[in-house]
Design brief:
Length: 228
Amino acid sequence: MDRIFISIKGVAEKLGVSEKTIYRMVGDNQIPFAVKIGGQWRFKADEIVDWIDSQRPGVAAPRRNTDHRLSLVDALENGAVLYRIHGSNRDEIIDELLAAQPYSASFDAKAIKISLLSRESVASSSLDGIAWMWPDQALPVYLEKSMVILAFLEQPVDFKALDGRKTELLFLVLPANNTEMAILERKLWRLSMSAAFLHGIREQLTRKRLLEFIAAQENMLFHQGPGA
């Protein structure tokens, strides 16, 4: 476990700051790749080391500015909430989602689909009727702004889920860079463990009410302070 994750103390030592500062940064979503294991914050070793290196003077700036305060609601507003998406299989659903997006020079639908299916070929992203999709890290695709698409399917579709349940809705994450991908991945991972969040999402609220609900859930889970 220690070879895979780094503790709060380890990150503080590498950055040359106090552990209290790291707790505050985590609480303010200013530091990515954090997960709670056994009630303690831990950081994915390979990813946090790369991030720490990028914060040091003399290291080249990322290709695009990173928003360390990026919220799921921000990403959804950049993306879309879609209802009654047609399709009889996973490929058709992906095609419908990508076709529904407005034109952008950085939006290469073909490359995005290839990357998504590459990740899906390893293991289905769907579980308990919800698919959590994002590009394969081996075939990265980046947009000008990170976006999330939340889509409710017209009818359940077989995504070859490990639990055998057909997919009813999905989150599709399309990042601007690796750090924002990690921020959104962490938030979705944490929200996916909340029964209240999953119940609310399945209600298929109107877009306005849905964004308000997600904002409230994010605030409750990610802005409780270091001791939460």
